[in-house]
Design goal:
single chain, Rossmann fold, about 200 residues, 7-stranded mixed sheet
């Protein structure tokens, strides 16, 4: 029998790394562009169940709700309370250990959250588990080695290459994986995000 006490202690220590992140461009613009694209590409009907993993300020929750989706968020602390005050269902649990039934969501929206996992393969497998057969995942993560040095962020543990993310999604069982990148310039220099979406067979 395995003893996970050291892992539990390590994860509890990582809670000290979490801090409220500022929210501003380019994030709202990207969400405004990607939400309707994903809904159209995967033909999500009104009432489709969407889980926003790491819902933060709730911008994507509102965007999906405005498109008629049945939305749930995963979040913590003050931001979670604000989202609840807007009437959203919020789950306050580690994204890698969700007390959620198998195969209940049409879409797992994972925008700027999987890089916060110490074991992204396991976390993506958890996303695969909770998505319905035929459902979809959206993953957006910061690229390594940009002017923003995302890998130096205190709670970024998995800032991986595009190829690494593709392999992890493939190993989890996702199919029809599409990839893109979003490049832009900030005061500190050039930055880039990797974007992936895929279907669960």
């Amino acid at each position: 029998m395995r003893d996970y006490s050291r892992l539990d202690a390590f994860l509890n220590e990582r809670l000290n790394d979490i801090y409220p992140e500022p929210f501003g461009e380019p994030h709202p613009g990207i969400i405004d562009q990607m939400v309707p694209r994903i809904i159209a590409d995967y033909q999500l009907p009104k009432g489709a169940k969407v889980i926003d993993v790491g819902c933060g300020h709730g911008y994507a929750l509102r965007a999906f709700r405005d498109h008629g989706m049945d939305v749930t968020g995963i979040g913590f602390g003050e931001e979670a309370e604000k989202a609840r005050a807007e009437g959203f269902e919020i789950i306050e649990q580690d994204m890698s250990f969700l007390d959620v039934a198998d195969g209940i969501y049409d879409l797992a929206w994972c925008r700027h959250v999987i890089e916060h996992s110490i074991f992204p393969y396991f976390t993506l497998s958890e996303m695969y588990r909770i998505i319905k057969p035929g459902g979809a995942i959206y993953v957006e993560v910061p690229a390594p080695d940009t002017a923003c040095m995302h890998e130096a962020n205190a709670n970024h543990y998995s800032v991986l290459t595009e190829t690494s993310w593709l392999q992890l999604l493939h190993r989890c069982g996702f199919e029809d994986i599409k990839r893109a990148s979003i490049s832009f310039t900030l005061p500190v220099g050039d930055d880039c995000y990797y974007v992936f979406d895929a279907r669960k067979p």
